[in-house]
Amino acid sequence: MRQISLLICCISLITFSSLSLAKPLASKDKINKVSDYFMSQVVQAEYDSAYSLMSAYIGVSPEQFEERGKKISHDMKMLEARQGKPLSFALLKQESVGEHFYKISYLLKYPSAALVWELNYYQPQEGWNLVDISFNTNINALFE
Predict the structure, then answer these.
(1) 88-97 and 101-109: which strand pairing?
(2) What is the CATH number of the domain that holds 121?
(3) Interatomic CA distance for residues 58 and 51, integer angstroms
(4) 44, 116, 54: which is closest to 80 by C-alpha?
(5) Residue 49 burial (CB < 10 Å; 0-12/13-18/19+)?
(6) Residue 134 pairs with which residues in a beta bridge?
(7) What is the domain range of residue 102?
(8) Count of structural domains within the chain
């Protein structure tokens, strides 16, 4: 029983220490500006720079985020080889769950395809931390 308590304590410390390393964003307005800049870098195919920018705000393991960024960069370059360069991006929606979670969704436009990008933020106390960046091709979900 004591080992389980110790394990839970260690996991909590690791989780909260990674949150404390993140540079929180002070407001939703700042989140919007940083997220728009991230998407402008994605449109320019500057994936590594885009993820490097966002790593300052990540509230989870920076190492995992960087690894995921490398994989996404590779995947996006493969997509670019098939679809061409992105044309532009458009803000789709901004959603909040109280003052705890905030999600921004964008459409990344290609000549014959589109990707939905979602950036999720969490506010533990004061200041917002990035939790996750993901993309998908499920445009049908936009109509629900």
Answers:
(1) antiparallel
(2) 3.10.450.50
(3) 10
(4) 44
(5) middle
(6) 118
(7) 2-143
(8) 1
Q: Which of 101, 119, 8, 124 is nearest to 54 (CA)?
A: 119
**Residue 25 in tokens:** 């964003």
Q: Which helix (H) or strand (E) holds 58?
A: none
Interval 38-65 mean pLDDT: 91
Alpha helices in the chain, H assignment, sequence order? 2-21, 28-43, 47-55, 62-83
Q: Distance of alpha carbon 121 from its chain centroid, rounded?
A: 8
C-alpha of 123 from chain center: 14
In this predicted structure, the answer to whether residue 40 has a pLDDT above a threshold of 90 is yes
Cβ atoms of 37 and 104 closer than 8 Å: no
- Record the pTM: 0.81
- How many residues does the structure list for the chain? 144
Alpha carbon distance 33, 111 (integer Å): 26
Q: What is the pLDDT of residue 66?
A: 86
Query: pLDDT tens, 90-136?
Result: 999 999 999 999 999 999 999 999 999 999 999 998 899 999 999 99
For residue range 19-29, what is the model confidence (pLDDT) as tens digits?
446 789 999 99
